[in-house]
């Protein structure tokens, strides 16, 4: 299979030579290849302008011309933004090594003594045209890549702005909802403590439903506020010296009532004593309460939940071990995602 990238593509060649007879001879040689489109320029002074206008794949350049030397034209090609990478094949009557060295230093890609063998000339033109096409394709691919990167950056900026607006909106909505829900929860707690005895069974159930639902919704709103605050990068930590053991023990005691209802043994196993640590007690307590509360909530009755710690170099590891059913394999990707919830029965 022919993998030549120029198999069906026209090769534009510009011949710059002051001798029409050379132009005709080159035309006849290259005309045997139907893919080659030859253009001829006999005026060296206008060669640069013609080359920039045509933007050929190959330039065949004579070295000895009236008005301007071929070496000077080679340097001008290399200074042109359009032509600096265009292959230039020198056609010269001189076979001198020093002339060849000067031509290559001036920017020539190849050097042929005219008139070259037709098979050799066509082969060299095709070879350099392939290289030119590959460079142009690479340049275009890089340009397209840069444009895609620019568009991607613009979209990322737009998405960041939208995300920031979303966080502000969620924060405002959650904040506005939290106050009235807090009032509902407070009044339900007041009724439960002050008027529970005068309510009948159905009214007590209604009140209990109002309270539990208010607590659930208030927790959801607090979680929403926390997430929006974290995502917006505005989370403020109130770090103070804290007794970590006392903080853990307090959260174990808070969950002890729920554990006893399910006949679950909830035990705290403190490790090596620690000095007071600099941390945000409220945030850490929220984490402990979630971990311990979920361990009790989803554990089977007549089992045990153990809270332990282990001191390591520059770290303290707190673990909550339960005997629940665990998280289904399909739900593991939901871990550590906002509002992710497993299908735990």
Q: What is the helix tally?
A: 9
Order of helices and strands: EHEHEHEHEHHEHHEEHEE
| Stretches with pLDDT under 50, minimum 5 residues | none
Number of strands: 10
Question: Can you give a write-up of this model?
Answer:
It is a single chain. The chain has 345 residues and is an alpha/beta fold. Helices cover 52% and strands 15% of the residues. It is built from nine helices and ten strands. The strands form three sheets. It has a five-stranded parallel sheet, with helices on both faces. It has a three-stranded mixed sheet with strand order 7-9-10. A two-stranded antiparallel ribbon has the order 6-8. Helix 4 links the parallel strand 4 and strand 5. Helix 5 runs antiparallel to helix 6 and helix 7 runs parallel beside helix 9. It is rod-shaped, with a radius of gyration of 41 Å.
List the helices and strands and how they pair.
Layout: E1 11-16, H1 20-30, E2 36-41, H2 47-54, E3 58-62, H3 70-79, E4 88-92, H4 97-106, E5 110-113, H5 118-194, H6 201-231, E6 240-242, H7 244-254, H8 256-261, E7 265-269, E8 277-279, H9 281-297, E9 304-312, E10 315-321
Parallel strand pairs: 1-2, 1-3, 3-4, 4-5, 7-9
Antiparallel strand pairs: 6-8, 9-10
Helix pairs in contact: 5-6, 7-9
